[in-house]
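User: For my dataset I need records formatted as: sequence, then structure tokens, nothing else. Please produce one.
Assistant:
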Amino acid sequence: MSRLPKPPVRKLSERAVKLKTWQLTAGAAGVGLVIAAGAVAAAGPWDSSGQRTAERDRAASQEAGGGADHDGGTSAGAPKAAPSAPSVLSGLGAPAGSAPAPTGRALADVLDPLLKNRALGPHRSAVVLDAATGKRIYGKEAGAAATPASTIKIATAVAALSAAGADHRIATKAVIEPGTKEVVLVGGGDPTLTARKDGKYVAQSASLRDLAEDTARALKDRDESKIKISYDTSLYSGPPLHPIGPNENLSPVSALMADEGRLDDSSSGPAPRAGDPAADAAKKFADLLRDHGVDVSADAPGPSKAGDNAESLAKVESPPLSSLVERMLTHSDNDIAEALARQTALASDEPASFDGGGKAVEKQLGKLELPLPGTKFADGSGLDRADRISAELLSTLLARAADPARPQLRSVITGLPVAGFTGTLVDRYPKESPGTGVVRAKTGTLTGVNTLAGTVVDADGRFLVFAFMADGTTDPQAAQAALDHMASSLANCGCRDE
């Protein structure tokens, strides 16, 4: 990627050349990568980006868990509130509230010329909010609804956490119909269920192998002889295929799937997918039961519906929703996004379908009194060009998630990729960029659409949220570089009036 020119700086004095240790630590803490002040001081020399090697390694090591704070584990309580910059600085010995907020006029002097970059196409919008107060500091076409691409996942995440709760877990069950030899594998909508023995995310995910082992034990205790397998996906309704059709970016959406229906060993990004992920998962389940000595009919598992009187044999549960949100945002995982939209629908008494998920997301965001004029939620992932969101809504969603009074939304912040280090931003920021390791943001890319929405701690230590949207772009790399430049300018800015 071409090197970004150094962003303009206002009133930074000695801070203009490089970010201070406390700012880097504040930026890390604000995104869940906090290291004790003493550890940072002893972490060794600066690398060429100005990012402490220890902080860089910490960010990279946490990527496998899907986010920065959950360490790939599953917490029992609600996650802690995302700290604003003043509370981070207070923890490092700086006076609370000492960081000044940028002013609108000074920020406009920096961002207005960057927003005019031709690489951003004919339709651009931008909003910057002060996270501590929720006040808008900068806005251009703030309320104009535009195609958000994958930044819609921020809305999906907030809605799911609000509707179902940060600690909600998705169960996959094996049941047996009374008086029969039929074992039904019942899908609950967990897209992270895995049939793999090892690999990335396996230790944190619900395991089809564990379910088979527990089911085999239960069948032995019941002295069951030969059985047959079927599977139940009735929790979801509507078409399983996204309007874009068969696509390596998204499996057919089903209440039952293993490893997102992937036919390779990948855990994120495009991959060949099973045409019927539920049937594929059921076949793997049957094979695993045979491995545990269960006499399973040679007939291929078929679809069915578990009766109300079906008896439970075993179940496994996903990590909490907060962890799924982090993994979804870090890697822009479309399968998790569509599953979370349906979990929102189920918690909102809407059909678990594309249409029902969209209605449920809008319903939940309406309860939060968010700015919804012009919005349309056609899916949960952002692959549908019919989606519409404004920069005002995106930035307000992030501000709500960063609010210490809403700890249940914190994983929306901690799941955002770290510029230059994790997820979809791992290759986007050059080492020399002031935003590297400090900007944390969700990307969005479709042909002709480029968006970026996230958080940053500026050069004075103020925690800001931003949303930048561009439509009609013709050079995606140039558009991405322009958006990254804007975010880096916020990181390097102590923008106040002269």
